[in-house]
Amino acid sequence: MTGQTDHTQVPAGRNTISVDAMGGDAGPTVVVAGIAMSAKMNPDIRFILHGPIEQLTPLVAKKRVLDGRVEVRDARDVVTMDDKPSQVMRNGKGTSMWSTIESVKHGEAAGAVSCGNTGALMAVSMIRLRKLPGVNRPAIAILWPSSNPQGFNVMLDVGADVRADAQDLLQYALMGTSYTRNSMDIARPRVGLLNVGTEEHKGHAELKEAYALIAEHADRGSFEFVGFVEGSDIPGSTADVIVTDGFTGNVAIKTGEGTASLIRSTLRDAFQYSILSRLAALLALPSLTRLSKKIDPRRVNGGVFLGLNGTVVKSHGGADATGVSAAVKLAFRLAEQGFAEKLAARVASSVELTQDTPARDFARATTQKD
Amino acid sequence: MTGQTDHTQVPAGRNTISVDAMGGDAGPTVVVAGIAMSAKMNPDIRFILHGPIEQLTPLVAKKRVLDGRVEVRDARDVVTMDDKPSQVMRNGKGTSMWSTIESVKHGEAAGAVSCGNTGALMAVSMIRLRKLPGVNRPAIAILWPSSNPQGFNVMLDVGADVRADAQDLLQYALMGTSYTRNSMDIARPRVGLLNVGTEEHKGHAELKEAYALIAEHADRGSFEFVGFVEGSDIPGSTADVIVTDGFTGNVAIKTGEGTASLIRSTLRDAFQYSILSRLAALLALPSLTRLSKKIDPRRVNGGVFLGLNGTVVKSHGGADATGVSAAVKLAFRLAEQGFAEKLAARVASSVELTQDTPARDFARATTQKD
């Protein structure tokens, strides 16, 4: 497996994030720049950084802010974007990704961040961290810019599994509620189930089943169920949590990202059209910057894996330093709040709920706060 | 059924579009304004307009450009957005929507346009016009702004049916190819199959089956199959035709629309932030107008129903006059080109294709141009 090195400064506990230096499109330089940004903003944070030691040590040495705050953990292999999850599960023990998850498993770090191959990261996380008792399918949750007061909605699953049955969708509603409470200040999140229309008779049969199941558990799960929502509600203000299967969720976020990116490039072209429009662009710069900030995908970089024994944040493969830093911040924040433990308690209570235990047990199960 | 009135000026043939005046969010005034815009731009176009005669006649009389070019066909009932398709199929004979489709069925008009309830419009179209021989599930195709040279991609199905098996997806590829050839100047459209990743091992089993089937028919169907594409390719330049089931397609376009609308409102807010930014907005107006034009959903308003004996265009329920006019223009253009007949020929040839007729028959079947 991975060789341990540089034992002089082993950071441990809640303030340590395990980071996969490899697997992102831009290589380890950007990842190290990202953790340096995080280190600057947060004096308490420490890192275990995984990858080839001869590449990482000089990169870390160049950033004074990282001095004494990073342990480099040598891992020789790298999971590429083309590797199949099943291959990585069998032969991935020597990879930086595997090593990154191991640090969480062994309690050395409170959370993990990787820019690598999503499918492989989920596969390694599942076999090393294991699913929470009662969770059939873990999910990936993301924050999506929205017109809600909090500025974002939570959506899940966006690609952990292409399938989800009614029971899975209920779990997503409960896990999404818990994540929303821990990442935003919303006591009773509004949960919507993604469909092609808001009328109850629309959509697949399994969605109608999920509708009934989620509605039934809303009160005990401490969320408000707003029923079916549509694609336009993902960036809208109707719900705080959008629940869907990983196939639909993945297509939806990529369509949204693609549309935003088309608009950005069209806007750029429009402002470069003439000398006058270039002048206008100069004057409009503060306004355009405000727009960019609001819809900048880097600010919300990081899909959180929900339903595992441990916090794993998947950063975008094409993330720059700002993006990596945002993913690290998210992992740190969740670690600080003991989110993994709270989610486990919430899921445990929901398992009791869905097993139809007597009312007395329901009351006990749902008094746990998350 | 519908009573015929105003027989003095019955327009007929290829240049006549049958228009449902009712069922849009903004009522018949906007629809009449829309057809007046079309009439101004196109001196050859004529209309049969369906709805309550006492409402429509004064509206039409107010527009001089419509003088002698509109036959009002009295229909007393209106399909609302809440009506279930099954109800409309049973009890909808007196509605303006039903009457609109009847005009196409009886050959009085070359195409139909309605802003009404999509599910009901598809249901009425299916029972009155009937599916083309060999088509199991008709589809709704839309144009979506893209970074391709032609400025748009075709996507289908966006909501005719929530399900689609491999055979249906092949039909969508063939119908989408035909529609792309007739709405844009692309001889050999590139077809992509929507999935959660571009690797062949990803996605549902039925998608892998569809992949093989579409790949097999690419040459004979005169399209290029680019394989799996992702949500980001819908506004991208990888493919000209995006094939997917109606559930995924519907969620995707609504997510894209919602994202574009969030960006628009954020941009507006950004430019109203201060006096300086308002001044900048004034100077930037030409640039912003260029952006709006490029991504204006009204310019591509109109989902085309493919796979029926006749051309039906579904306009957005919230369309304004410009939107209605765009939908009418699309119906007229397709009618002018004899698209319905070309599509029927194309589907007939594909039925032969998929029935694995001998090579000699393939050659004959695919020599038909569309």
UniProtKB/TrEMBL annotation, chains A, B:
GO biological process entries: fatty acid biosynthetic process; phospholipid biosynthetic process
Pathway note: Lipid metabolism; phospholipid metabolism
GO molecular function terms attached to this record: phosphate:acyl-[acyl carrier protein] acyltransferase activity
Subcellular location: Cytoplasm
Location of the region described as Disordered in the Swiss-Prot/TrEMBL record: 1-21
Keywords noted in UniProt: Acyltransferase, Cytoplasm, Lipid biosynthesis, Lipid metabolism, Phospholipid biosynthesis, Phospholipid metabolism, Transferase
Pfam families: FA_synthesis
EC code(s) of this entry: 2.3.1.274
Catalysed reactions, semicolon-separated: a fatty acyl-[ACP] + phosphate = an acyl phosphate + holo-[ACP]
Any single Gene Ontology cellular-component annotation: cytoplasm
Domain of life, per lineage: Bacteria
Family listed: Belongs to the PlsX family.
Quaternary structure (record): Homodimer. Probably interacts with PlsY.
NCBIfam families tied to this protein: plsX (TIGR00182)
Protein name listed in UniProt: Phosphate acyltransferase
Organism: Parasedimentitalea huanghaiensis
Gene, per the UniProt record: plsX
